[in-house]
Amino acid sequence: MGLLFASMAESQQINVTGQITDRTNGDKIPGVSISVKGTTLGTVSDIDGSYSIMANTGDVLVFSFIGYEILEATVPSSGRVDIVLESTIFNMEEVVVIGYGTMKKSDLTGAVSSVSSGDLTSAPVSSIGEAFRVELLVFK
Hints:
By secondary structure, the protein is α+β, with helices and mostly antiparallel strands. The chain folds into 2 domains: 2-85, Immunoglobulin-like (Sandwich); 92-139, no CATH class. It has 3 helices and 9 strands, in the order H-E-E-E-E-E-E-E-E-E-H-H. It has helices spanning 2-11, 117-122, 128-139, and strands at residues 13-22, 33-36, 42-44, 50-56, 60-64, 71-74, 83-85, 95-98, 101-104. A hairpin with a 6-residue loop joins strand 5 (60-64) and strand 6. The relative contact order is 0.15. Keywords: Receptor. This is TonB-dependent receptor. It holds the Pfam family CarbopepD_reg_2.
């Protein structure tokens, strides 16, 4: 009987909360995707890097955000999981941005134009997206 109650206690969902920060500068990171591994449950961190999600003690939470390493953490009985994400740095010369994703330059076939960082920084624009649009118009 005690074993039955112990397993029922483990399967009860708790409200898991925490805060997500950047390892390099300690800034709080908004927009981080948090999901319970093996389920469709998920949420996103708010503007202060805080999040809240229902999960079972022992579940694994997966934290992912573009430009950062994916991190997994097991839910403790306290229900508090603070996360520090590590930025990933990669060589932009090896990645090609396409309209709906990315692929390695070596895997790319078809017409390609190159835009250097100097071209982008010299363009009179207010955002990187605008810079790409300007450069694409110049190369046509």
